[in-house]
Amino acid sequence: METLVGKTTQELEAVVQALGAPAFRGRQIAQAIYKRQVRTWDGLTDLPRDLRARLAEHYDLAPCRVRSSSAAPDGTVKYLMDQPDGEVIESVFLPYPGRTSVCISSQVGCPMACSFCATGTEGLARNLSAGEIVDQVLLMQSLHPEQRITHVVFMGMGEPLLNYAAALAAIRILNQEVGIAMRHVTLSTVGVVPNIEKLADEDLQLTLAVSLHAPNDTLRSELVPLNEKYPIARLLQACRDYTDKTRRRITFEYVLLADVNDGEKEAHELGDLLRGMLAGVNVIPYNTTDVAAPYQRPTPEAQRRFREIVAGHGVTITQRKERGHRIAAACGQLKRSALRRGSMMRSLPVIAAAPSGKP
Ligand code: SF4
Fold this sequence. Notes:
Its EC number is 2.1.1.192. This protein is α/β, with parallel strands linked by helices. It folds into two domains: 9-58, Orthogonal Bundle (DNA polymerase, domain 1); 65-341, Aldolase class I (TIM Barrel), CATH 3.20.20. It has eleven helices and twelve strands. The strands form two sheets. It has a ten-stranded mixed beta sheet with strand order 1-2-3-4-7-8-9-10-11-12. It has a two-stranded antiparallel sheet with strand order 5-6. Strand 7, helix 5 (164-178) and strand 8 form a beta-alpha-beta unit. Helix 1 crosses helix 2 (24-35), helix 4 packs across helix 5 (164-178) and helix 6 (193-200) runs parallel beside helix 8. The protein is elongated. It starts with 8 loop residues before the first helix and ends in an 18-residue tail after the last helix. Bound molecules: iron/sulfur cluster. The site of iron/sulfur cluster (SF4) has 12 residues, from loops. Residues 110, 112-114, 117, 119-120, 159, 190, 329, 331-332 line the site of iron/sulfur cluster.
C-alpha cells in the first residue's frame, strides 16, 4: 500500500481532496508527519475520525519499522529497519557536539560491486521509494526527540544516483517539508557521471561526495568496477562542471587500503589529479572487521604520510574521527543476507516499535 510519508504537502492536499475533504487537511497531515513525526493514525488528532478511517483504507502512514538497534559508547546508534515487503535496510544516528547527523540508505543492496564492500557483493534487490528514504530520518527523529537532526548523509546502502528520481524527491521533502537545510544534505556517489551532470542542473545547494578510492584507472577499475564505464578523466570533468555550475565544493572519499592505494606514488598521483579543483579529500582507513575481503588497514604512519603528501600538492585533506559504525567505504557495508539473519551486528533490544495503529 502507498504511504503518506513521501508525499509533498501539495500531494497530500490532493489525497484528501480526492476523499472529499478540504485541502487544509492535507496541510495538517504534512505538519503532523514531517514536523511532529506522528507515526500512528491515532496520533493524527487534528483530523476527523472518519477521514482518518478513510485514509487508512487506502494508505499506510509510514513504511519503516525498527527491527533492531545497536548503540556504540560514542552515542552512535545503528538501526536495522524493516520495509513493508520484508527487505531490511541500515540507517545510522550520529550525534556530534552541536549537530546531529543521520546516515541513510537509498537502495536495498547495491549493484556496484566495489571490491572492498559487502553491500555490493550481493547486488541490488530494489530501489527505495522517496517515502522509504525520508522515513528513515523521521523514524530516527521520533526515537531521539531531544536531539534535532540537522544533517543527512546518503552513505548507507546503495548508490543514490542510480535511484535518482526517488533520491531527489526525498531530498526535496527533507528540505522543504522536514526543514533540513539543503547545505546539510550530503549525497555520496561512486561516480554515475550522467547523473552527476544532471544533478548539476538541479540548482540544489547540497554537498556532493564522490567515492574516488584510487588515483589512476587501472587501480580504480579494480576497486570500483563502474570506473570501466566512467573512467577518472570523465568523472573529474563532470565534477569540474558540477563545481563550476553550483560553486559547491566536492568531497572526494578515499578508503585507504594497505599496500593497495596508500603508497607515496598514489598520494602524489592523487595530489596531481585534484590540484586546483574546488574539492577536498576525506580519507577513511579501511576497517578490517568490515568484510571478508583481502584488504588491510594501513598503519597510522602510512596514513599520516599519505595525508602529508597529498596536502603538499595544495589539496585539502581530512581524516574524520571514526564513529561506532561502518561508514568506512563512504557507503553501506552490510550484506543483505546478514541483515536478514541479523548476524553482523549485536542486536540489542528494539528501542521503540512504530505500529501503524489504524483507527
Ligand atoms: S562501496 Fe558503495 S557504491 Fe560500492 S558497492 Fe558498496 S554501497 Fe555500492
